[in-house]
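Morning F.,

Quick status update on the modeling queue. The single chain you submitted on Monday has been processed. Sequence for confirmation:
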Amino acid sequence: MKFIILAALVAVAAAADYAPKYEAPKYEAPKYEAKYEEVTYAPQPYSFGYDVQDKESYNDFEHNEKSDYNVVTGSYRVALPDGRTQIVTYKADAYGYTADVKYEGEAKYPEYVEKQYKAASYPAPAYSAPAYSAPAYPAPAYPAPAYKAPAYPKY
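Structure tokens below.
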């Protein structure tokens, strides 16, 4: 048994010393230019639109947008939870963003009905209040400290 333990210790010591030695890879530092040049692209006209109508999830919305070189115009429509449809028509140009918001339909809210239920009645508790005696605090066993005024020498 002692031989097995000694052999295991020798094997562990030999394995710890046998770690392979690798050199750290050498990388060149990146060469940065002193000045950053921003890449700019010429404005491109575009146009897109999509429409979603999913009856199962009650999603119903639409978005259309088009742009020339300077002005972006578009609109979107969303079905609101209160039954109305919100329609936003917008324009964005050098003067800012301008939106026209309209609503179609009339908001429908469910009528509030107060719940007609009776609160449960419970009997009064059947236990008596606990009777505690007032705590007794004995006087301290040590004498109260006496403080003397400090005596300062007169110069």
